[in-house]
Amino acid sequence: MLFSFSLQNLDAPLKQNKAKRIKVWVKGDHNCHEFTINPKQFRTWNSILLHITDVIQPNFGAIRRLISLRSNEEVWNYDDLSENDKYIGFGSSSQTQLNPKEYRTNQELELERKKSIRKVYAGPKHFGDTRFISELQKKNVTVIYATLNGVNDQPPQKVVFNRFDFNNWYIIINYLSRILSIPEGIGKICTIHGISIKDAFEFQPGYLYVVVPNNHQFLRVDYLKIFDLYRTIQNRMKMIKRGGKKKFDSRVVQGFVKIQNVD
């Protein structure tokens, strides 16, 4: 359906004084832009459309009309805008067949993504008490441990992700390849049982994960035993630094690096 552009009085003064928050997309671009429109700053509907155009800068040029995603009807003036509603910007002559599922905010996309995430078992939580999880939630971070496939003399690495990292899987992959010294790149990340992790939201706080390099198969190793040995070494090193123990049992280190593959 096409609307007649001539019916719209773009330069009519605004009647309302209350500011409104709206979300705007343009046809073909699924990036959401949030605006707070204050009538004290914009005296006419035309000035509002020009401001939205300046921020979004659509390929088709100036935005001359807004279509409500909820009602699929054109908004003719500021009075017709609804607080926190969604709108699609068009040029002077555009069709209005819209699919609401194509225009979602980042929060809506993240919520839907989390709903589709599999719950995978990754081994006992070494820090899995409710107090630890609660502290992570307050700080908006997740702590996991990552170890190299098959393990060598490199200890597991503690990794801290914030909520922004979770939206970029490639950042996580590149970071893990760097701290675990994997120049050939990472093929996949698995639980200790070999189940592939497809998304960062599958990571569970305090769990151990196995990083498999490119062109390698997952190797079945007693990863938890290795991790427990690593934690034993860490604890003993802390005791030495605090003066609680003068000697360090080298057999613990040897046991850590000589764990054999298991069938």
TrEMBL record:
<dbReference type="InterPro" id="IPR003533">
    <property type="entry name" value="Doublecortin_dom"/>
</dbReference>
<feature type="domain" description="Doublecortin">
    <location>
        <begin position="20"/>
        <end position="104"/>
    </location>
</feature>
<dbReference type="GO" id="GO:0005815">
    <property type="term" value="C:microtubule organizing center"/>
</dbReference>
<dbReference type="Pfam" id="PF03607">
    <property type="entry name" value="DCX"/>
</dbReference>
<protein>
    <recommendedName>
        <fullName>Doublecortin domain-containing protein</fullName>
    </recommendedName>
</protein>
<dbReference type="GO" id="GO:0005874">
    <property type="term" value="C:microtubule"/>
</dbReference>
<feature type="domain" description="Doublecortin">
    <location>
        <begin position="142"/>
        <end position="224"/>
    </location>
</feature>
<dbReference type="InterPro" id="IPR036572">
    <property type="entry name" value="Doublecortin_dom_sf"/>
</dbReference>
<dbReference type="GO" id="GO:0035556">
    <property type="term" value="P:intracellular signal transduction"/>
</dbReference>
